[in-house]
Amino acid sequence: MGRKLPQFIAATCVCIGALGTGTVLGWTSNITDDLKKGKLNDLKMNDDQLGWAGSAMTLGAMVMCFPIGWIADILGRKITVLLTVFPFTIGWLLIISAQHEAMVRNQLKTPMMEHPVALM
């Protein structure tokens, strides 16, 4: 069991990363109605704004896939994933504390999209 413990920990971390990727990809699906009605921090968004906010991760992943690949080759996969955790968290904090639609949309400008790409 002693030598397998690090493997179990690594596998658990990868699974948590996959869970994080899933939440980034699908976060708008269950909160769309609340955002349209202004129930989240009195933030009201229309369909166009929600579309941009929902596609931010995939657009960011498209832009960042090659740079993250190069960074992962230089620094290694483990360090690259660890370096993307902080911006990933900043992106979620922007969404959670959003007072304006731009804060939700600007998650694209944080490297939030790097984390799911780095996990792949």
TrEMBL record:
GO molecular function terms noted in the UniProt entry: transmembrane transporter activity
GO terms under cellular component: membrane
Localization, UniProt: Membrane
Keyword Transmembrane helix: yes
Keywords: Membrane, Transmembrane, Transmembrane helix
Transmembrane regions listed in the UniProt entry: 50-72, 79-98
Domain Major facilitator superfamily (MFS) profile, chain residue ranges per copy: 6-120
Pfam families named in the record: MFS_1
Membrane topology annotation: Multi-pass membrane protein
Protein name: Major facilitator superfamily (MFS) profile domain-containing protein
Organism of this sequence: Acanthoscelides obtectus
